[in-house]
Amino acid sequence: MADGQKHLVHQIEPFLESEDKSALKELLSNQRSSDIAEVVELVDNEQRRTIFDAMDKPTSAEVLEKVDEATRSELFELLKKEELKSIVSELDPDDAADILSELPEEERTELLESISAEESAEIKELMSYSEDSAGGIMDTAVISVSEDATVAEAVNKIRSAEIDEDFFSVCVVDKNGRFVGDVRIRFLLTRSEGTRIGDLVDPDTIYVTVDMDQEEVRNIFSKNDLIAAPVLENDNKLVGRITADRIIEVAEEEAAEDLYTMAGTDADELDTASVFRAARVRMTWLLPCIIGTAITALVMMFFKGHNPVIYVAAVAFVPMIAAISGNAGLQTSAIVVSGLAT
C-alpha cells in the first residue's frame, strides 16, 4: 500500500467507525476521486456503503469508474438501482458504456430504460462497437463546426458547448457532416472574426476509424505525438474523438495483457474464485513442459535398466540443464519486457 493510501485510510478510519457522516463528507470533498477509489478497493462492503453515502453523485460516479473490475462488481451488488441510475447519469457516455458492459444483460437493459432516451441511445451506440476498437474507447463529446462558418461563430459554439474535457482543436465538417480537417484553437484566437473556418483547416489532420484496433490507435498516437485524434466512420462522418489520457489506459491494458500472456495466465486469475479455471488457463504453457520432462524421465529410466553408466552420466548433467533453462527463461522475459517498455 502506498504512503498516500495509508494516510487517507488512517484519516477515514475514525469516521467510518464512529459513522460521523458530516465529518466524513467534509474530508472526502477535499480528496481526489482516484485516491478515494483506492481506499474503496481496500475496505469492506459496510465501509464502502458509508463512503458512498458521504459522497455527492459526481464524485460517486468518478469513484465507480476508477475502481478495479472486481470491486466494481461488488459495488453493483451494494448500490441500489435508483442510486446506480443517478450515478450512471453523471458519467460521460464512453465511461458509462464501459461500466454497463460489465453488468448482466437483464440489469443493463433495465438501467438503460430508466435513463433519458438521448443518453440511452448514445450509450447503446458506443456499446455496439468492439471494446478493443477505436469506437469502443472514443468520447462522443466533440465540438464540430461547418467549414463555411466564421471564426466568431466557431468561438461562440465553443463557449456554449458543455464539454468538461480539455481540447486544443475544433473539428471541421462539410454540409453532409463529413470530416474535412481541424483548426487549432490558437488560430481562432489570432484570426479576425470574419475569417472563414474552411480557410484555416489543416487538411492533413491524422484521424482514426471506428473499427481500428486500440493497439493500432495507440501506435498512431505514439508515432505522431498526438494529444487527440478524431474518430470517423467509414464514410468519413465524424462520430467522436480519442484523447491521450485514454491512450495511456490502453497502453497499460495492452502491456498487462502481453505480460499475462507471456506468463501463461490472464488478468482475471486474481479475481476468479475457480481453481479449475486458473489451472485451465495455465495448462496451455505447463502441459508442454510436463510432456517434455516426462519424456526426459522415461529416457533416463530406460538407460537406468539397460546401461547404468550412461544413466549416471546423464544424471550429472541434470543440474546444468535446469540452470541453463532457467537462465534462458529469464533472458527471454527480459527481452519481452524491454520490448513492451519501448
Mean pLDDT: 82
Q: DSSP helix count? A: 17
Cα separation of the termini: 28 Å
CATH architecture of the largest domain: Alpha Horseshoe
The helix fraction, in percent, is 55-70%
Rg result: 27 Å
Overall spatial form = extended
CATH homologous superfamily of the largest domain - what is it? Answer: MgtE N-terminal domain-like
Assign the CATH class of the largest domain: Mainly Alpha
Number of DSSP E strands: 6
Record the strand order, biggest sheet.
Answer: 1-2-3
Unreliable spans:
none
As for the number of domains, it is 3
The portion of residues forming beta strands comes to: 5-15%
* CATH topology term of the largest domain: MgtE N-terminal fold
**Helix-strand sequence:** HHHHHHHHHHHEHEEHEHEEHHH
Task: Give the helix/strand layout.
Layout: H1 3-18, H2 21-29, H3 33-42, H4 45-54, H5 57-66, H6 69-78, H7 81-90, H8 93-100, H9 105-114, H10 117-127, H11 134-137, E1 144-146, H12 151-160, E2 169-173, E3 179-184, H13 185-190, E4 208-209, H14 214-224, E5 228-232, E6 238-243, H15 244-263, H16 275-306, H17 308-341
Parallel strand pairs: 1-2, 4-5
Antiparallel strand pairs: 2-3, 5-6
